Amino acid sequence: MYYLGLDVGGTTIKAGLVDENNRVLDSRSTPTIIDDLKGFISKLTDLIRDFQKSAAIDAVGIGVPGLRSSRTRAIQTSPNIPCLNNVNLEQTVADVVHLKVVTENDANAGAYAEFRCGAGIGLKNLVYLTLGTGLGSGLILNGSLYTGASGYGGEFGHTIVDPEGRPCSCGKRGCIETVVSATGIVVTATAKLKTAGDSLLRQVAPPLTAAKIYDAAIRGDQLASQVFAETGRWLGIACANLINLLNVEMIIVGGGVMASGELLLGHAGDFARQYAFPPSFEDCRIVQSKLWPDSGMIGAALLARDR
Amino acid sequence: MYYLGLDVGGTTIKAGLVDENNRVLDSRSTPTIIDDLKGFISKLTDLIRDFQKSAAIDAVGIGVPGLRSSRTRAIQTSPNIPCLNNVNLEQTVADVVHLKVVTENDANAGAYAEFRCGAGIGLKNLVYLTLGTGLGSGLILNGSLYTGASGYGGEFGHTIVDPEGRPCSCGKRGCIETVVSATGIVVTATAKLKTAGDSLLRQVAPPLTAAKIYDAAIRGDQLASQVFAETGRWLGIACANLINLLNVEMIIVGGGVMASGELLLGHAGDFARQYAFPPSFEDCRIVQSKLWPDSGMIGAALLARDR
Questions:
Q1: Does the global pTM surpass 0.90?
Q2: Looking at the complex, does the CB of residue B146 fall below 8 Å from at least one CB of chain A?
Q3: Which of A247, A248, A251, A270 to substitute to test the interface with B, most B CBs within 10 Å?
Q4: What domains does chain B contain, in order, with CATH numbers?
């Protein structure tokens, strides 16, 4: 049995062929068309057909950034891929490829992958966080993917931590993703560069990125190190809040920012210990993703198998 | 079949006899002894025996403020009733009264009551908040009481919303309960009185309480009204965060502060609408508790029946 998992991002659709043992046998990608539904569907179904030439696919799973309604199965809203708003992508794609198709929020799919075959195997309660341009998240509670009353659950990145804080892509202010994300790291560094003195970051070719700030931090740059300490503090507070509310056994962190791995998680663990209830903290581990950058793709395939 | 529910508070233990139809037939109370375990058990078991004289009790449920371990069934920590720390209250009480005894966090018990026979009948996903001295909370997710990996889940009141904020009884700073609770309302009013001009609150006999501030607000006092507007704003942000993360169908608010009912919930609803994702907000109602002040007691009895 073969399952195809697709991870739809703002710029690229990644697809992977996954077998019964959760292994990725082959993967390909295609650019995402964000503002023309016909073009989007055409690119996506071409990719599926391409895989069908070499393998008998049993079902297709698609991870999409945005809110998916569990009642209508439509994508309720997808700010980065506006052509998907109010589209029943499952039905639309199934009509073309004549296969079982399931959709899910991309971070929820990532959580499911880590739960089934990643860092969280065997656990019943975990949170998956993915730190990229934004902060995605998915919940596994009582041994299953938790999506809430309407399918919209798991949006931890839009927890308001500072109502007068930075503007967020969602239109509000002070969401945790405005500080804990690649974007947030760059904003924090840029603000510090306006007032602080010497820093390696002043010699870096623009644009400034989280990766360049990380490079400076490991080369001993004080300002860059402070940026990671502050980001790790917010991530730690965020983890403490999740631990107190949900008493999960594991918080799994993936995403592009995790190239900075232990530097960020070290700070986060220290602050989570400081802010969470000790018994709840003791029962939770904060670890790196095992499957990133493929977690969303693998999770989509496994949801196509299991749902 | 009769079930006895006990709600252990910092000053009083309330007990209610509940029948198969979730009705409270009789209720009594006794003072809580907080620092002597033998004395505490003696008072509590006397109360149970008193009920046993007039009814054949099938099981006893006890709601306790603090963290209860689902692994050991012991009360891991109870800051307001220190004699219960690390005590297996279920076993200790069962040994005396020779009945099935179950324990649970008091706010979790309240959530269970609202779910079974209160404001949340028929729903699968809800949050119960109780605004008193602190901010208690319990979660019903996917149609059952959610307590997390170790039983400690549901502690929303200790979500950090301002790391440099007010000191909290838990030893940290800036927990949401430092602003959204009767205690928080008094602190907010006291701070405003230091700088603002005229207010009815200046003529009130000490000590200042949330109830007196509410009375002043409904009599048109501007400062008191601002206190409720600010508290409602924080409660609204808290609700928005719960709605985005958990996509619940209902947030039920109980507790002593709910004497101020619609005044506080009106503000909270306005701000939750402003801060939550619109589709998630549309699927959630924010309502008053139907069972408060008996929700914890009834929930404990129903858990004794159902667990």
A1: yes
A2: yes
A3: A247
A4: 2-112+294-306 (3.30.420.40), 122-288 (3.30.420.40)
The whole-angstrom separation of Cα B187 and Cα A175 is: 26
Which residues in chain A touch residue B246, judged by CB atoms under 8 angstroms apart? 146, 148, 153
pLDDT tens, position by position, B77-99: 998 899 999 999 999 999 999 99
pLDDT in tens, A1-57: 999 999 999 899 999 999 999 999 999 999 999 999 999 999 999 999 999 999 999
CA dist B143 and B98 (Å) reads: 31
Task: Note whether A241 contacts B: Cβ–Cβ < 8 A.
Answer: yes
Nearest to A153 among B159, B237, B245 (CB): B245
Q: Is the dihedral of CA A147, A149, A154, A155 positive or negative?
A: positive
- Does B170 contact chain A (CB < 8 Å)? yes
What are the chain B neighbours of A245 within 8 Å (beta carbons)? Answer: 139, 153-156, 159, 245
Residue of chain B whose Cα is closest to the Cα of A123: B149
Give the Cβ contact number of residue A160 at 10 Å: 23
Split at pLDDT 50, 70, 90, the class of A259 is confident
Encode pLDDT of A186-225 as tens digits.
999 999 999 877 899 999 999 999 999 999 999 999 999 9
- Pick the closest to residue B3 from B146, B128, B116, B141 (CA basis): B116
Enumerate residues 268 to 287 of chain B having a beta carbon within 8 A of any beta carbon in chain A. Answer: 274-275, 277, 279-280, 283-284
Distances (CA, A) of A90 to A41, A87, A155, B102, B114: 11, 9, 22, 46, 36
Task: List, for residues B235-291, the tens digit of each pLDDT value.
Answer: 999 999 999 999 999 999 999 887 777 889 999 999 999 999 999 999 999 999 999
Q: Where are the alpha helices (DSSP H) in chain A?
A: 37-52, 89-97, 106-117, 182-195, 210-218, 222-246, 261-275, 278-282, 295-306
